[in-house]
Every structure is written in structure tokens, then in C-alpha cells.
Design goal:
single chain, about 60 residues, alpha+beta, two-stranded antiparallel sheet
């Protein structure tokens, strides 16, 4: 399974609208461990790149309504 998809339920949200603000890294680590995924430094770096891309895409969606 894709490591990023394992994190789908681990987003931290803020405000009345529940806007995603980033991943809960403790939850991500736990989800990865339960799925048998070894969280290496490289994998974590890649995950953070995808996290930033997702946050930027959602930000653009909100701007463009």
C-alpha cells in the first residue's frame, strides 16, 4: 500500500472549517508501523514533500472556490 495513503486519516485540522494544516506525525508513525512499513528518514522526507503538495493544492482549491 502507498505510504501516503496510509496517512489519509492522520491530518490535523484547524478552525471552524476544519482546514487541513499538516499531518499528525505520531499518528503517521503509528499507522506505518501497524502496516509493517519501516519509516526511514528518506521515506519521511518523501512523505513531507507529498504533505506540502497536498496542502498547497487544497489552498489553491479554497482560493479558486
Amino acid at each position: 500500500m502507498n505510504g501516503f495513503l496510509l496517512c489519509a486519516t492522520q491530518w490535523r485540522r484547524a478552525g471552524m472549517d476544519g482546514i487541513p494544516v499538516g499531518l499528525d506525525y505520531a499518528g503517521v508513525e503509528s499507522a506505518a508501523r501497524m502496516a509493517g512499513v519501516v519509516m526511514t528518514a528518506r521515506l519521511f522526507d518523501d512523505l513531507r514533500v507529498m504533505e506540502l503538495a497536498a496542502l498547497e493544492a487544497w489552498s489553491e482549491e479554497r482560493k479558486n472556490g
